[in-house]
């Protein structure tokens, strides 16, 4: 997902405290920043929320790539508002992470140094206007699938950020579907672009949920802590089942010859994405990793004088005010 | 079997609708009141469109998240205003062109924005200074347009004026803050002012179209806005400790469709899809 | 120099005259800019008519260990809650 393969940290604290903490979580209580929490819980959350925040921010880039080329004024406004929302999501999530005792600047530096990751999906390029539809429909669709249950996550600030985000997300997937629908119902060239977008984004979207975590110790711990609600496979299955009929309605073909309805399980059987590709993308070898990092690094470095200048002015104003008193 | 009534009617109805929209009608005659008004409205709309486009280029690249979101708001306001002005321009022209047709299917010489708004973004200081110089003209312009003899213009100006009141408050304040901030931020703001000052004056230079529009009470005379503009920028520069350049030399031509080299690249980017796939609906 | 902008807590009063509600936080160099950022970040969908910002560092929060003594007394003052009262149907909505 936006937070893929988050390793949960081991914890070696007072067993009594740990048991009491777990009891609170099991009782459905929210953990708040000033409450006692295991070190592992705190560190895992920083990693997960941070990765989620980074994904929103880096996720601005592939869609932002088409803002200046949007084909109508209305589409331009919709896309701009959508990408702006993603910046807002990043902001809410950084704030949630900050309640755990790490600053946004620290998180940013860790992103830029490569110490922290962001979702693999944003290392794929947007090559045609139909890709903007595919991103909203598939990528936001997959993200929503993960974010809706996270509204019930155990950490209060994270849960509240997710509630706000989910409210705003509702239009993202719909505008994407509406866009790609126009393409699928349009001229032969538009239809070809729509199919090509689906072909390229299908497997990377499935990868968003992360590799199967059936036997992962990490996800067992995270699920006990309710910072992970469903398994990767559950969500992936749900996503496929939801998306196949939507593609059929568009007259588009999911690029999977093994895709088949399985009556027994009440869901589709489908092909696994190429997990080698996934690990390569995480390692930095996706088509756009270098470009994405370069863009974020440039924005951060080029913006330094602005951030410093505004801070300096605020400080001067304060001392001027003090001097005048 | 005789064709049904609707079969008979359909081709005529389509042709009638097209004719009603004015498709295929001859272009407006230069110097006619309709042409003057159309030109004036595209000047307003094109300024918003081109500046909105430039500001939108920042999305995902701003110095800090809060600023990224603020810039997107500005761009969204400007694109919204574009739809109103160009929509009205198309209506006045009466040849079936809507705001999108005007935005995406005209070539450079038919765009009437001032040169200032097509200047490349440069660093954040240049983007901000460009915005401030524009807002300092835009705000009094809209205020004056609220008194237009054409109700449609007055209504758009009133709506846009509320948004622009926020724009000028924001850009003026940021110019002051960064002019004051650090040595580096001050130097960059001064450099931005010097780079852009020569493009601030075009908006106040009247041509024959402006003069006729002013005489008709449709739009204010450009030079009538200069005093307010000077007052605003002088006050802000003083507070920001920025030195106003001595020469008021003004580059011009944009309002008449003679643009800088940057314009063609901007349009290539912006109009690409509509030009490459003219039959497509989006 | 490179020092991070301080964090602010944002409170917004919505259209319907309810109390200011905490909606989230953001970074800004000073109060004025915090208000402006709050407008841009937290009222993009017309959510508010009035904004308060408070430096996060200025918020004093109750310690979790005080949760008992601080909040339990209110728990038995059920009369503060409207549902405590049985209003006869004939009286109508109250
Ligand atoms: Fe998002
Ligand atoms: Fe989204
Ligand atoms: Fe997203």
Describe the structure.
The complex is a heterotrimer of chains A (325), B (282) and C (94). Chain A is mostly helical. Chain A is 66% helix and 2% strand. Chain A has helices at residues 15-26, 39-58, 60-64, 73-98, 104-112, 129-150, 156-184, 188-207, 217-224, 232-250, 275-285, 289-302, 304-324, and strands spanning 260-262, 267-269. A two-stranded antiparallel sheet of chain A has the order 1-2. The longest helix of chain A is centred in the middle third of the chain and has 29 residues, at 156-184. The relative contact order of chain A is 0.12. Chain B has one domain: Ferritin, core subunit, four-helix bundle (Ferritin, Up-down Bundle), CATH 1.20.1260.10. Chain B is built from eleven helices and no strands. Chain B has helices at residues 5-21, 33-56, 65-93, 99-105, 115-118, 124-145, 151-180, 183-196, 208-215, 226-240, 261-276. In chain B, helix 6 (124-145) packs antiparallel against helix 7 (151-180). Residues 5-9 of chain B have low confidence and may be disordered. Chain C is flat and about 60 Å long. In chain C, 22% of the residues lie in helices and 21% in strands. Chain C has a single domain, classed as Phenylacetic acid degradation B (Ubiquitin-like (UB roll), Roll). In chain C, strand 1 (7-13) and strand 2 (21-27) form a beta hairpin. Chain C is an alpha+beta fold. Chain C has a three-stranded antiparallel β-sheet with strand order 2-1-3, with helices on one face. The chains are: A mainly alpha (325), B mainly alpha (282), C alpha+beta (94). Chains in contact: A-B, A-C, B-C. The interface between A and B is large, with 47 and 52 residues.
Essential attributes:
heterotrimer; A: 325 residues; mainly alpha; two-stranded antiparallel sheet; 13 helices; 2 strands; B: 282 residues; Ferritin; 11 helices; 66% helix; 0% strand; globular; binds fe (ii) ion
Just name the CATH architecture of chain B: Up-down Bundle
Q: Order of helices and strands of chain B, N to C?
A: HHHHHHHHHHH
Strand portion of chain C, in percent? 15-25%
Query: What's the number of helices of chain B?
Result: 11
CATH topology of chain B: Ferritin
Strand content of chain B: under 5%
Rg over C-alpha atoms of chain B, rounded to the nearest angstrom: 21 Å
Strand order across the largest sheet of chain C = 2-1-3
Identify the CATH class of chain B: Mainly Alpha
Low-pLDDT regions of chain B: 5-9
Beta strand count of chain B: 0
Tell me the name of the CATH homologous superfamily of chain B: Ferritin, core subunit, four-helix bundle
- Mean of pLDDT of chain C: 77
Domains of chain B (count):
1
Q: What is the rounded distance between the termini of chain C?
A: 59 Å
The largest β sheet of chain C comes out as: 3 strands, antiparallel
Pfam families (chain C): PaaB
Protein name (chain C): 1,2-phenylacetyl-CoA epoxidase subunit B
InterPro entries (chain C): PaaB (IPR009359), PaaB_sf (IPR038693)
């Amino acid at each position: 997902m936006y937070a893929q393969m988050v390793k949960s940290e081991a914890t070696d604290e007072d067993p009594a405290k740990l048991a009491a903490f777990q009891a609170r979580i099991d009782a459905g209580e929210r953990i708040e920043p000033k409450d006692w929490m295991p070190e592992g819980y705190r560190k895992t959350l920083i990693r997960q929320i941070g990765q989620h925040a980074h994904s929103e921010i880096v996720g601005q880039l592939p869609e932002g790539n088409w803002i200046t080329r949007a084909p109508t004024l209305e589409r331009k406004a919709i896309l701009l508002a959508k990408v702006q929302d993603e910046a807002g999501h990043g902001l809410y999530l950084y704030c949630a992470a900050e309640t755990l005792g790490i600053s946004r600047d620290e998180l940013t530096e860790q992103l830029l140094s490569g110490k922290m990751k962001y979702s693999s999906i944003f290392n794929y390029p947007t090559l045609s206007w139909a890709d903007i539809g595919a991103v909203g429909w598939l990528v936001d669709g997959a993200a929503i699938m993960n974010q809706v249950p996270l509204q019930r996550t155990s950490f209060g600030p994270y849960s509240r950020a997710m509630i706000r985000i989910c409210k705003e997300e509702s239009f993202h997937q719909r505008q994407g579907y509406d866009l790609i629908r126009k393409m699928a119902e349009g001229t032969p060239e538009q239809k070809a672009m729509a199919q090509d977008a689906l072909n390229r984004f299908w497997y990377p979207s499935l990868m968003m949920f992360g590799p199967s975590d059936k036997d992962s110790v990490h996800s067992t711990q995270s699920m006990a802590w309710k910072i992970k609600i469903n398994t990767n496979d559950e969500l992936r299955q749900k996503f496929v089942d939801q998306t196949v009929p939507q593609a059929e309605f568009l007259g588009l073909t999911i690029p999977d010859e093994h895709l088949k309805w399985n009556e027994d399980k009440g869901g589709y059987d489908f092909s696994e994405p190429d997990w080698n590709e996934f690990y390569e993308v995480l390692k930095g070898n996706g088509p756009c990793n270098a470009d994405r990092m370069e863009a974020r690094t440039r924005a951060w470095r080029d913006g330094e004088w602005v951030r410093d200048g505004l801070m300096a002015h605020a400080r001067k104003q304060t001392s001027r005010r003090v001097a005048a008193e | 079997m005789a064709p049904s009534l609707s079969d008979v009617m359909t081709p005529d109805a389509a042709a009638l609708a097209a004719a009603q929209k004015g498709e295929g009608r001859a272009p407006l005659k230069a110097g006619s009141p309709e042409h003057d008004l159309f030109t004036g409205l595209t000047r307003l709309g094109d300024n918003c469109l081109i500046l909105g486009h430039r500001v939108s280029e920042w999305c995902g690249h701003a110095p800090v998240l809060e600023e990224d979101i603020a810039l997107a708001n500005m761009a969204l306001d400007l694109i919204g205003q574009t739809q109103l002005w160009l929509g009205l321009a198309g209506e006045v022209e009466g040849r079936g062109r809507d705001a999108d047709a005007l935005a995406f299917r005209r070539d450079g010489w038919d765009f009437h924005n001032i040169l200032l708004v097509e200047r490349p973004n440069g660093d954040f200081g240049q983007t901000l200074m460009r915005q401030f110089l524009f807002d300092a003209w835009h705000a009094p312009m809209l205020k004056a347009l609220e008194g237009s003899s054409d109700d449609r213009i007055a209504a758009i100006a009133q709506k846009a004026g509320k948004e622009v009141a926020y724009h000028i408050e924001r850009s003026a304040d940021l110019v002051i803050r960064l002019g004051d901030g650090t040595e580096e931020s001050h130097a960059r703001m001064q450099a931005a002012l010097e780079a852009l000052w020569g493009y601030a004056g075009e908006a106040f230079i009247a041509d024959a179209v402006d003069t006729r529009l002013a005489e008709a009470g449709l739009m204010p005379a450009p030079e009538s806005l200069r005093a307010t503009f000077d007052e605003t920028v002088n006050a802000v520069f003083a507070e920001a400790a920025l030195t106003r350049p001595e020469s008021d030399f003004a580059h011009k031509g944009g309002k008449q469709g003679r643009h800088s080299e940057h314009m063609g690249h901007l349009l290539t980017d912006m109009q690409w899809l509509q030009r490459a796939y003219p039959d497509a609906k989006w | 120099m490179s020092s991070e902008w301080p964090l602010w807590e944002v409170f917004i009063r919505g259209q319907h005259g309810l109390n200011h509600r905490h909606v989230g936080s953001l970074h800004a160099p000073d109060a004025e800019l915090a208000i402006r950022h709050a407008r841009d970040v937290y009222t993009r969908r017309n959510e508010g008519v009035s904004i308060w910002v408070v430096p996060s560092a200025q918020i004093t929060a109750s310690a979790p260990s005080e949760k008992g003594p601080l909040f339990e007394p209110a728990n038995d003052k059920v009369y503060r809650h409207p549902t405590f009262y049985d209003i006869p149907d004939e009286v109508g909505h109250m």
